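Design a sequence for this backbone.
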């Protein structure tokens, strides 16, 4: 099983691509997620779409708009509202969790491994086989 984050951007215009990925792949869509953190003193959120693993290939894509929008639990905003509308239209619950900011890690790859570990630990994605 290969699980990989695919970073779309910070969420200003990239959010529309993330929404379209979720909408057009509703059969493959496994989870919609919000990762909340504090980065440079600001409460921000990353939005993510987790796909089911491919068959064949065992590749699981996790598309993410990283730390680019205000945390909607502290400041309502249109981008988070669009993500919530997507969840409602697909009858999905948005999984929310607080995580460390990407700047805590020396490399972005380590940051993504940290999140993958959290997702595996909470059984949101399968462990390595």
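Sequence:
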């Amino acid at each position: 099983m290969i699980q990989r984050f695919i970073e779309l951007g910070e969420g200003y215009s990239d959010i529309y691509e993330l929404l379209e990925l979720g909408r057009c792949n509703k059969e493959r869509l496994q989870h919609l997620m919000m990762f909340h953190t504090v980065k440079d003193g600001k409460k921000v959120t990353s939005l993510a779409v987790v796909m089911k693993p491919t068959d064949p290939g065992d590749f699981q894509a996790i598309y993410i708009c990283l730390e680019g929008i205000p945390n909607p639990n502290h400041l309502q905003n249109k981008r988070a509202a669009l993500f919530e509308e997507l969840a409602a239209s697909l009858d999905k619950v948005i999984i929310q969790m607080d995580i460390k900011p990407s700047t805590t890690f020396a490399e972005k790859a380590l940051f993504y491994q940290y999140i993958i570990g959290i997702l595996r630990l909470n059984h949101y994605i399968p462990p390595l086989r």
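The two ends are 6 Å apart (CA to CA).
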